[in-house]
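Dear Dr. L.,

I hope this message finds you well. Following up on our conversation about the binding site, I have prepared a predicted three-dimensional model of the protein together with zinc ion. For your records, I am including the exact sequence and ligand specification that went into the calculation, followed by the C-alpha cells. Please feel free to forward this to your student if that is useful.
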Amino acid sequence: MNKILSSFTKIISPPYCIGCECLLPDYTVLCTACLDRLPAIFSQTISVTVSKTLTVHALTAYQKPIEKLILAKLNSNRIPIDQMSFLLSEHVKKHSLDGDYIVPIPLHWQRTIWRGFNQAEILAQAVARVLHKPVCKFLKRTKNTVFQSKLSATERKQNLENAFKCVISLKDKKIILIDDLYTTGATAVAAARELYKQGAASVELLVACKVID
Ligand SMILES: [Zn+2]
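The resulting structure of the complex is given below.
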C-alpha cells in the first residue's frame, strides 16, 4: 500500500526542491544545498510541574522553506506532511531517542474530521518505523481549542486546562510526544502534564519546527 501511495505521490508531486525549486534526482524534499542551509537541530528543557520537565527537540526553525510544509496542512494537503515525515525520520536515524511509546499530540476529533488527518499522527508513524516502537493513541483531546493561536499566553494556558486525557496508566514508561510545530509550548506542556499524571517516567517532545522569537 505504501509503495502504491509513494508512486502516486511521485506522479502528482514531482521531485522539486521546496527551497530552490531545482529538480531532485529522487523523491526527496530539499536539495543538499538547501538542507545544509537549514538551521541545526536544537533541544531545550522546560518545566511541566515543580519536579517534572519536558525536553523539546526541534528538527529546525519555523522559517522558509520548511514553513511551506507546515502551512499546507491548513488546506488538508497531505503530501507536504509526508515530506515532513521523510525529513523527521531521516533525523531520527541519526539522533537516537529513548522511549517506550510514540504518542502524537492529538487533535480534537472535530478538527481531525475537518482536515482529514492529524499531521502529528503521520509524523509519529514515520518516527515509529525508524525506532521500532509503537504509535499509541491513548492521549485524547477532550476540548476543541480551535482558536488557540489568537489567545495570549495566559489565555492559552487556561484554555488548555484539562484539554487532554490519557486513558491508560503509564507507570514507568518513557514517552516520545510528536508534533509538527512548537509555538509557545502551552499545548505540549498541557499534554506532558497529563502523561506525568498517569505515571510516565519521562516525556520528550520531537517537533519538526520551532517558532523562533
Ligand atoms: Zn534546494
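In brief: The mean pLDDT is 85.

With kind regards,
A. P.
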